[in-house]
Amino acid sequence: MTVAMGRADTPLPADVDVAVIGGGIMGLGLAYHLALLSGGKARPPLSIAVIERSYLVSGASGRNGGGVRMQWGDAGNVRLMMESIELCKDLAQQLGINLWFRQGGYLFLARSEAGERRLERNVQLHAEVGAPTRLLTAAEARAIVPQLEVAEVRLATFNPDDGVVFPWAFVWGYAARAVERGVTLRTHTSVVRVEPLARGYALHLHTGEVVRARRVVNATGAWSGALNRQLGIDLPNRPHRHEILSSEPLKPFLDPLVVDLTTGLYFSQSTRGELVTGISLPDAPDGSDESLTLHSSLRFLTHLSATLTRLMPITAAMKVLRQWVGPYDVSPDGDAIVGPSPGHPDFVQVCGFTGHGFMMAPAVGRLLARWLGLGEAHPMLARWSPDRFAAGGVARREDMIIG
Amino acid sequence: MTARTFVCRCEDVTLTEIERAIAAGLSDVEEIKRYTGLGTGPCQGKECLSALGRLLVARGLISPAALRPFTARPPVEPVTFGALAAGATEVPEDPSP
Ligand SMILES: Cc1cc2nc3c(=O)[nH]c(=O)nc-3n(C[C@H](O)[C@H](O)[C@H](O)COP(=O)(O)OP(=O)(O)OC[C@H]3O[C@@H](n4cnc5c(N)ncnc54)[C@H](O)[C@@H]3O)c2cc1C
């Protein structure tokens, strides 16, 4: 049988050049880009294995909202996302899948003076960087989404290039094309122990197998701390539960993804017709939000519904269909944690993407592969260095993180 | 049964699409759900899940004892945002920065 996707019985080589732990969008996107390079400029070709504990898309990559935007508060992030959105345009063809990528824009709403200042700053910054974001009055926002209750809206911004994707297809597409290019993809297999060798690492799997790798990439997102601790690598990213839901499918009526800065409410209509929506939820008093438990809460449902029906009154009659949870991998300064680990240069992190790793993955996969395969630098890699925390950390640069 | 036999009527998933997922090496209900969209519509798999389970067992891909339904997602039945909003204890009001 042709092994087009990961299986629990895919044979694993005893030695590989690069072992990627974690089959989410980061691990698979990186493997795909490495394999592309490997056939071309990187000589000799690299042997690459991806090892995933569960099924593909079981982590945050199969549980997110699919929002893709260049409206950020920091120039580095705006540029990176312009790169990523550019890549998304051709990706469906490259990966041979339907990405359900729909550029309906992102509409940000400010209802406070502070929010208003953030949006004004963004528009100026985006103009400098070349992103087509524009300031809108409340009435203009309402022209884009006629169902909005805009009495409290002071200012809005809109970027027509932002949009949404359907995450599952995206991940399967990277997986299929990576495997086609020679990547070994093993699913339903957990890495239980990482043992440093004189050169590289031995990965001990729950099946008793051992894979030796010259370099290892930790792409386990919210679960990454457990593997890092085994090697004495101390990084400050922590898991955080984020809830989300989708409604019954409706005919297309909503073009942009709408974000209310005040409440952290966001909602969009997926290409499948469902309203997909989430919100910043104050932490539950029992501390469970900092855990990796994936139970849904009624608190989220009621809090979100009260907020949504105030801003979008017609939704009162729409029905909630499904609610679920995924783990954010929260980095304390809002920047991802990518690159060689402190004290372990051949154990490479690609973690800490908080609530925006999906949209960044196309650009991250490519730039990280170029660094691993060709030694090519990228300005974001210097900024994302896992070493920055030992030096006392850096101030938060990004204030447009939602959720 | 034909290639156009619908296994999941909510999301229009056909037997052919399930066969394609199996050919791609998938054998677990959670992964087949996410590969095809089966079970993600209004009935939440109440209709299609048993048909999928039966197929996987018939193919020898899973033993009946190991077969588990996929995670149930609340709400059990579709509920309006309006009804849920009425259950909120604190109505979010204050514009914070
Ligand atoms: C509800 C929600 C909404 C979001 N909305 C958006 C959005 O709109 N836009 C956006 O860009 N981002 C969004 N995000 C964030 C985005 O989903 C993540 O940043 C991104 O998916 C991270 O990808 P990843 O590959 O790093 O992690 P994951 O997809 O979590 O993958 C990590 C994988 O590692 C595996 N693993 C863990 N431990 C081991 C081990 N020991 N051995 C083997 N495998 C292991 C896990 O099973 C998992 O599959 C959202 C996240 C959530 C939870």
Automatic annotation (TrEMBL), chain A:
<keyword id="KW-0560">Oxidoreductase</keyword>
<feature type="domain" description="FAD dependent oxidoreductase">
    <location>
        <begin position="17"/>
        <end position="371"/>
    </location>
</feature>
<dbReference type="InterPro" id="IPR036188">
    <property type="entry name" value="FAD/NAD-bd_sf"/>
</dbReference>
<protein>
    <submittedName>
        <fullName>FAD-binding oxidoreductase</fullName>
    </submittedName>
</protein>
<dbReference type="InterPro" id="IPR006076">
    <property type="entry name" value="FAD-dep_OxRdtase"/>
</dbReference>
<dbReference type="Pfam" id="PF01266">
    <property type="entry name" value="DAO"/>
</dbReference>
UniProtKB/TrEMBL annotation, chain B:
<dbReference type="InterPro" id="IPR041117">
    <property type="entry name" value="SoxA_A3"/>
</dbReference>
<feature type="domain" description="SoxA A3">
    <location>
        <begin position="3"/>
        <end position="87"/>
    </location>
</feature>
<protein>
    <submittedName>
        <fullName>(2Fe-2S)-binding protein</fullName>
    </submittedName>
</protein>
<dbReference type="Pfam" id="PF17806">
    <property type="entry name" value="SO_alpha_A3"/>
</dbReference>
<dbReference type="InterPro" id="IPR041854">
    <property type="entry name" value="BFD-like_2Fe2S-bd_dom_sf"/>
</dbReference>
<dbReference type="InterPro" id="IPR051691">
    <property type="entry name" value="Metab_Enz_Cyan_OpOx_G3PDH"/>
</dbReference>
<keyword id="KW-0560">Oxidoreductase</keyword>
